[in-house]
Amino acid sequence: MPELRKDPITGRWVIIATDRAKRPTDFVREKVQIHGSGFCPFCPGNESKTPPEIHAYRSAGAKDTPGWTLRIVPNKFPALGIEGTLNRQGVGLYDKMNGIGAHEVIIETPEHQLTLATLPVRRVEDMLWAYRDRILDLKKDRRFKYILIFKNHGEAAGASLEHTHSQLIALPVVPKRVREEVDSAKDYYNFKERCIFCDIIRQELEDTVRVTAENQAFITLAPYAPRFPFEMWIVPRVHQSAFEESQKHEFEQLAAMLKDMLMRLDKVLDSPAYNYIIHTSPAPEVSNDYYHWHLEIMPKLTKVAGFEWGTGFYINPTPPEESAKFLREALLPATT
Amino acid sequence: MPELRKDPITGRWVIIATDRAKRPTDFVREKVQIHGSGFCPFCPGNESKTPPEIHAYRSAGAKDTPGWTLRIVPNKFPALGIEGTLNRQGVGLYDKMNGIGAHEVIIETPEHQLTLATLPVRRVEDMLWAYRDRILDLKKDRRFKYILIFKNHGEAAGASLEHTHSQLIALPVVPKRVREEVDSAKDYYNFKERCIFCDIIRQELEDTVRVTAENQAFITLAPYAPRFPFEMWIVPRVHQSAFEESQKHEFEQLAAMLKDMLMRLDKVLDSPAYNYIIHTSPAPEVSNDYYHWHLEIMPKLTKVAGFEWGTGFYINPTPPEESAKFLREALLPATT
To answer: Which of A70, B81, B141, B175 is the most buried (most CB within 10 A)?
Structure first.
């Protein structure tokens, strides 16, 4: 008998197939491979092929020349424009406004062949600092209500360039899904006077079956009601409402945890395409007791089809207890 | 400057690219082709390879033998089980219940090579009657709160068998996304004392730019804030809260409209994969003044990536005014 499970934060039900659970090798998918053939606008020497850099970490060289280890540029085909006013208006019964926002690309390394799983952990930490730097800078612009950091890895997950990069989008509204998640956590807090994520961490550390990894500052778990097989959440142990408020030791520990988890996914699922997303508090309510920032990783193993689009109800063929076990038990080589 | 538009029913914002709008030929995708090679469990003669039929329209033959023109069978790999009780329970702070529900397949024709766009319109109408028959039958079971009808056409849209078919899933809860849409329409009704969909139809018929087709009983429009390029909604002109309450002349007109629209999509987008979903009232509130059933068609032209997963905010590269125009102006051959 399949099981219906409810996500305690969003209230979303998912169907967990318990009878005929899919193992890692049951998923048909294309392995993410880096071909490195053809022209790459993110490689050193091609700096003029992107818009001028916003920021870079570099050991040598001038702006928009080689010598960088990490580079941040505006997206060449931005979804939103940075200049102008929102100009909210009605159109009969409809509502619209100008597409104001920022859309940036974080190029995590000059080396085309590397991924977050194969980069030195120090470079992964740099990427986290870059996320923080950009969030803090963009939050000075009061037009922006939410800043989203995400990564599409592999073509199946929506990456259009194979050179590893993350994206940032600053939005003039708090998106509905974010609003729902934050408000639901707030309702829980108002009723219980406890953070729901802190409660989840406590219960998961007792149950242990869905915990995949732990270090001093973070735990990684397969959530109780995951939408997708092998969905993983990295959550700070101690309550913290916003990613950008993390401290040095937290970024070190997060870099290690993220790299480790991506190596495990590569090992267990043979280098899958994936998306990850940082879920954090909206800009106008950055420090609070009710929302707990975290990072959600979703390997791209299944297709979303009519049922999911029609209901927001997901069918997940792999129980999280199984995916956590596979990832926990993966043997990894020693890393840098 | 891109434009942010708000869906008036769900409150979801979308980004509409107005500068660099994508035309039909700009989308990279695989054309849906029917190969017809290999064994097909949905073809006549192979009736024993599916679970025993629930219902069929047939001119000859006994149950589970050839002679049918439409056949309904339980899904061989159901997402939910039909027998048992819900047994709702808590697991610490989590909630779960048994995966009770129905999961059925409607095989729309015995002919492997046909699609809804190439079937005679009379057969498309039969399919609509079959949807209705199954909904009315399943609604007798009080455990089911929502019955979803959907179609995945083409592998990219999640179809695992190429022989044309639709699916039905009966659920023991009203899914969150359905609840949101229905409640939002109810809020509008409570405030305005008018159905929001009736208001949309009135405004769209005045504006005309997003209307793709009309007949006596239905209009097809590109919604004001579509998530996906070439998303289309078929809406009954006269207020009706539930699909299954449609009358004979409405099914005739819907069959003609649906076939026409799928032919236009095939023509303009070169036989794309697509999903369609019937949005209708939950079983316990079938007749009401606030919700207006409709059918949503979403061609599979773009990939959903980190940004959409993180926010529920969609980036749509084709304004609906453009997609409506392309579809409206498509020249079609005369049909049966």
So the answer is: B175
Measure in Å the smallest separation between the Cα of A62 and chain B Cα atoms.
32
A146-153 β-sheet, strand order: A55-58, A68-74, A102-107, A165-171, A146-153, A274-279, A294-299, A232-236, A218-221, A211-214
Mutate to test the interface with A, among B3, B83, B96, B148 (most CBs of A within 10 A): B96
Residue A335 pLDDT class (50, 70, 90 cuts) = low
**Whether pLDDT at B302 is above 60:** yes
**Average pLDDT, stretch A284-310?**
92
Q: Is B315 helix (H, G, I), strand (E, B) or coil?
A: strand
* Catalytic residue from among A103, A153, A163, A165: A165
Question: What percentage of chain B's residues is helix, strand, coil (to nearest 5)?
Answer: 30, 25, 45
C-beta neighbour count of B77 within 10 angstroms: 11
Does the model's pTM come out above 0.80? yes
Of A79, A94, A310, which has the smallest distance from its Cβ to B150's Cβ? Answer: A310
Helix axes B320-329, B248-269, angle to 10 degrees: 100
Residues 6+ apart with CB under 8 A from B137: none
Strand partners, B295: B234, B278
Is A279 known to be catalytic?
no
Run of H or E residues at A96: strand A94-98
Chain B contact present for A157, CB below 8 A = yes
Residues of A within 8 A of B178 (CB-CB) are 310-312
Gyration radius from chain B CA atoms: 20
Chain B residues whose CB is inside 8 A of the A179 CB are none
Opening angle at CA A106, ends A147 and A60, nearest 5: 135
Q: At what angle do helices B176-192 and B196-207 cross, to 10 degrees?
A: 80
pLDDT, tens digit, 9 for 90 and up, residues B168-203? 999 999 999 999 999 999 999 999 999 999 999 999
Average pLDDT over residues A135-152: 96
Write down the ipTM of this complex.
0.91
The tens digit of pLDDT for each residue in A228-286 reads 999 999 999 999 999 999 999 999 999 999 999 999 999 999 999 999 999 999 999 98
Q: What are A213's strand-pairing partners? A: A220
Q: Are A289 and A241 in contact (CB under 8 A)?
A: yes
CA distance A184 to B275: 31
Chain B residues near residue A96 by CB distance under 8 angstroms: 3-6
Interface check for B61 against chain A (CB to CB < 8 A): the answer is no
pLDDT digits (tens, 9 = 90+) for B32-54: 999 988 899 999 999 999 999 99
Alpha-carbon gap, residue B110 to B45, rounded angstroms: 10
Does pLDDT of A19 surpass 90? Answer: no
The one-letter amino acid at A199: D
Architecture category of domain B3-329 in CATH: 2-Layer Sandwich (3.30)
Asked if residue A73 lies in contact with residue A50, where contact means CB atoms within 8 angstroms, the answer is yes
Sign of the alpha-carbon torsion through B161, B164, B169, B174 = positive
At B70-108, the pLDDT tens digits run 999 999 989 899 999 999 999 999 999 999 999 999 999
Is the pLDDT at A291 greater than 60? The verdict is yes
Pairing of strands B146-153, B102-107: unpaired
Does A229 contact B at CB distance below 8 Å?
A: no
User: How would residue B16 be classed by pLDDT, with cut points 50, 70 and 90?
Assistant: very high
Cα–Cα distance measured from residue A161 to residue A22, given in angstroms and rounded to the nearest whole number: 30
Q: What percent of chain B has pLDDT over 90?
A: 87
